[in-house]
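Backbones bend. Shown next:

***
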Amino acid sequence: MLQANYSGVLLEAGTDEAGRGCLSGPVVAAAVILPADFEHPLLNDSKQLTEKQRMHLKPIIEEAALSFGVSFVSAEEVDAINVLQASIVGMQRSIAQLKPQPEFIIVDGNKFKPYKDVPHETIVKGDAKFLSIAAASVLAKTYRDAYMEDLHAQFPAYYWSKNKGYPTKQHRAAIREFGITPHHRKSFRLLPEQLKLDL
């Protein structure tokens, strides 16, 4: 069972991101403040859920949340500041959208930078421990997947509707054949043999 609250503070926000390990597309982050009595038998770390389950949960979370925010950090920004910083920037932008603002923040993972003067705690595998982080993980993943499906219409050769920008064999084969798009992260090792190629 996921826990409802870490800090004992009513306005506790959970935050998480999706897309850190992708070769293309944005890092998408979300922050969610859930009511104290929120529960749902399905809600878990988004990686443990099917796409259908995530899509089912998305409107339930948005409807029930006291507040939620979602932000996109572009591939260009990822290249400029690195993917870890992009994750933190994305989570902070999502928190900034929350109304009311949180009194405490719980963060999935082990890296974060203070947001204003709001106390926070990083929690490794927090998306499998706390409802608000799990809810944020579902929103980040569903918004990112929808974005990559839209991009797929413009760049069908890369199969982003299926791989969502992750480094699959099919995705890498398309990079090898067609080169990269403006949505690829140039700071990432896009092909295993990239170190040997004159790019």
Residues 12-147 form a domain with the Nucleotidyltransferase; domain 5 fold (CATH 3.30.420.10).
